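Lecture notes, unit on protein representations.

Consider one protein chain, 119 amino acids long.
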Amino acid sequence: QVQLVESGGGLVQPGGSLRLSCAASGSIFSIYAMGWYRQAPGKQRELVATITSGGSTNYADSVKGRFTISRDNAKNTLYLQMNSLKPEDTAVYYCNMGIATITSRYYYWGQGTQVTVSS
């Protein structure tokens, strides 16, 4: 069984920074995809950033230059460093990982962590 646990959300003023973490645990054989998504009230879930097993990254235009996605393969952990935060970044942030176990391949979601940017 695989589980993703997120941490690091909270309330921050505009211009501030937060770092999100997402740790995977369980019977993991390999992790072949990692990404962060977010969902604001009344809106659909949207892609924020992705990172491949080789370290190639991709960002939504709205966060380019402000957010940085990274991964620690030894710890099966995904990070999202968020700088210069804006009120429009307010959302629930979800991590997503494509994980292979001995018997299956499946995309798993974290439980979500609230990020609120407000003065």
